[in-house]
Amino acid sequence: MSPVGLPSTLLHVRYVADGEGRDPGPLELLKDAYGDPLGLAALASILIGLAVVAVVLPRLKTWDAWRLALTATMEDYRPFLPWILRLSAGIALVAAGVTRTWFVPHLDHGSRVVAILFLATGFGILVGVLVRPLALLAIALWGFAFAFLGTDLLYAAETVAALVALTALSAGSPSVDDIMARTMQGAPGPLSRLARLSRFLGPERDADLSDAYQDWMPFVLRVGLGVSLLAAGLGEKLLSPAAAFWTVDHYGLAFGPVTPALWVASAGFVEALIGLLLLVGLGTRPIAVAAFLVLTVTLFALPDDPVAAHVPLWGVASAVIVLGPGGWSLDARARRAAAS
């Protein structure tokens, strides 16, 4: 154990797995899952369903009208983005401080100093005080852990995406920064200086962020959520399924003709596909809704799953639904091509 509590080896256990099951290679897993008629039928039904949705839905007469109405409605929800992201990242940081872990439940450190840093940063972001510097501090903590622990920190990519967005959005409203900026403007002495600091760190009304909303912010949030889901689908299931097999056996998730291999491979494909589509920005809002549903099903399927670990995923998925794909996406490119 290093002085700051970094484990001496890279841990590969996941959030609920207390052991390992079978560990077939990727090709053997696919053969076990889809090497019989039932497995092939399950895979074919998923692919056909996706193809039908992708082809039929855009051709419905009501689709464009509904999409435009949804986009206009989501515009009204943008003022809530700082609050959504603060709650998401703040709860995750507080949970990491309480459990003495590095952002994700299976990377523990045992350091009181690091735990206090996580707790202070998380509570500050939750209540909305000094949000920008605290978000930068949390990003630095993630970068420090990533340098030592490597790719396991990608399971917290959505938390980092939320923190990056908060550096531009600041605290928003309601928040302590906003309260101080509004109520202490004419206060004497140090209170006035505190109000000026609050306006600098979290202005009463943020500057025009239309470019950020349209381009880099949706991109950052999409990529953060996509990387996290892609890592879960590939790293926990398709490429290294031992912990997933243990989880299926422990919770009795396999039933009837659905074998453990079919469950693990299909869950991995779904998560990886959702993550990949979010990365490229294709069908972004429906895919973000699908991600939200997958996370919710996981919560009910795994009763021991730490809820706080999924809060940033729900929050960032909600933010992606609000913001949409942004300008740097295949969705935007398709719309530009259709308009030209």
Q: Which range does the strand content fall in? A: under 5%
Count of runs of 4 or more consecutive helical residues: 16
Overall geometry: flat
Low-confidence stretches: 1-13, 203-207
| Secondary structure: number of strands | 0
SS-derived structural category: mainly alpha
User: Could you estimate the helical fraction of the residues in percent?
Assistant: 55-70%
Mean pLDDT: 82
Q: How many strands, which pairing sense, and closed or not: the largest β-sheet? A: none
Report, as a whole number of angstroms, the end-to-end distance.
60 Å
Structural domain count: 1
Element-by-element helix/strand order: HHHHHHHHHHHHHHHH
Rg over CA atoms: 22 Å
Please outline what is shown here.
The protein has 340 residues and is mostly helical.
Description of the structure:
The protein is mainly alpha-helical. It has one domain. About 70% of the residues lie in helices and about 0% in strands. The chain contains 16 helices and no strands. The protein has helices at about 25-35, 35-55, 60-75, 80-100, 110-125, 130-150, 155-170, 175-185, 190-200, 210-215, 215-240, 240-250, 260-280, 285-300, 310-325, 330-340. Helix 7 packs across helix 15. The longest helix is centred in the C-terminal third of the chain and has 23 residues, at about 215-240. The protein is flat and about 80 Å long. The chain starts with about 25 loop residues before the first helix and ends with a helix. The relative contact order is 0.14. Residues about 1-15 and about 205 have low confidence and may be disordered.
